[in-house]
Write a structure and sequence with these properties.
Layout lengths: L1 E4 L13 E2 L5 E2 L2 E5 L2 E6 L11 E6 L2 E6 L2 H13 L4 E4 L2 E6 L13 H12 L6 H4 L12 E2 L6 E2 L8 E2 L9 E3 L2 H10 L5 E2 L5 H9 L4 E6 L7 E5 L5 E5 L2 E10 L2 E6 L4 E6 H9 L5 E3 L2
Parallel strand pairs: 4-8
Antiparallel strand pairs: 1-6, 2-3, 4-5, 6-7, 7-9, 9-18, 10-11, 12-13, 14-21, 15-18, 15-21, 16-17, 18-19, 19-20
Length: 291
């Protein structure tokens, strides 16, 4: 983790050097730490009010913006000086995070999941373009929906086991997509280690992002506007899916929002907490984390 000073009024990296007390022997500055990293040294008699309000630390794959309460910080530093302590660790609050990631636009009608994986791979220096990943993705079931005699349902694949449909066939019955397990396996083959995140809370998503870990998340992009459809797999399992299913990459969070890269448009968006929570839960809270 690397501490970096944000340019705020009155902030200074080195606030003092070794100083001597008057008549009571030598006294030394207190070393100030934030998020486990040395930030400053404050000498006796030097005003600790110069401590910063904001810091940026590099953690995992992202930059984390921290807030330091100046009143609390000043009190703790003054107490440490009075007690001749050599070190003080300041409390802080994680305010927002940002994980730099190159935007990609999906090349096929139904490969948002592969595009999301390609973005994640690129962020850790692994070259895994969509055109190479799509042919390697496991398929499941017939390529096109098959009618079932005497039933309104049709027979198609299981997205838990592999890609359903044709990646580049237009329309909801041309292709659907794939869920986490096959994407996780495909990532492992490409050297990308992803961790299952299924069923966790929205709070856990924010925690991961505040620790610098991007996530691939499955959401209902249309907000149920496209409705749902149901079919039966060759093994007899009934599958009900949202037509608006899409995989996105979460790249940061802040007060009241999430940042995400959308493969469908190749653009970055800012979603409110409620919007993400609703649309993520509509797809069963499916996600994969890059640790």
């Amino acid at each position: 983790m690397r501490a970096v000073l944000v340019a705020t009024a009155g902030a200074a990296l080195i606030l003092g050097a070794t100083a001597c007390g008057s008549g009571s022997g030598p006294t030394y500055p207190v070393n100030v730490y934030v998020a486990g990293k040395h930030f400053a040294s404050v000498a006796p008699g030097h005003p600790s009010s110069f401590l910063p309000k904001a810091l940026i630390v590099q953690q995992a794959h992202g930059e984390i913006f921290l807030h330091v309460d100046q009143a609390v910080a000043n009190t703790l530093v003054d107490q440490a000086l009075a007690n001749h302590q050599g070190r003080v660790d300041l409390p802080y609050t994680r305010v927002r995070s940002f994980i730099k990631m190159e935007l990609q636009h999906q090349l096929f009608h139904h490969d948002s999941e592969v595009t999301a994986l390609s973005m994640i791979a690129s962020s850790v220096g692994i070259d895994a373009p969509q055109v190479r990943l799509v042919p390697l993705l496991r398929r499941n079931g017939p390529a096109a929906p098959q009618p079932i005699p005497g039933s309104k349902l049709f027979r198609w694949g299981d997205p838990e086991k592999g890609f359903v449909g044709k990646p580049n066939a237009p329309g909801p019955r041309g292709g659907f997509g794939v869920y986490e397990a096959p994407i996780r396996r495909l990532g492992a083959k490409s050297g990308v280690h992803l961790v299952g995140f299924d069923g966790k809370s929205v709070a856990a998503v924010r925690t991961a992002l505040f620790e610098g870990h991007p996530l691939i998340a499955w959401v209902d992009w249309d907000g149920a506007a496209g409705g749902h459809t149901t079919w039966v797999t060759p093994s007899g399992k009934k599958i009900t899916v949202s037509v608006g299913e899409r995989a996105i990459v979460l790249t940061g969070a802040g007060p009241g929002y999430y940042l995400l890269n959308d493969p469908g448009s190749g653009k970055e968006y800012k979603w409110s907490l409620s919007r993400f929570s609703t649309r993520w839960q509509m797809l069963g809270r499916r996600a994969l984390e890059l640790p």
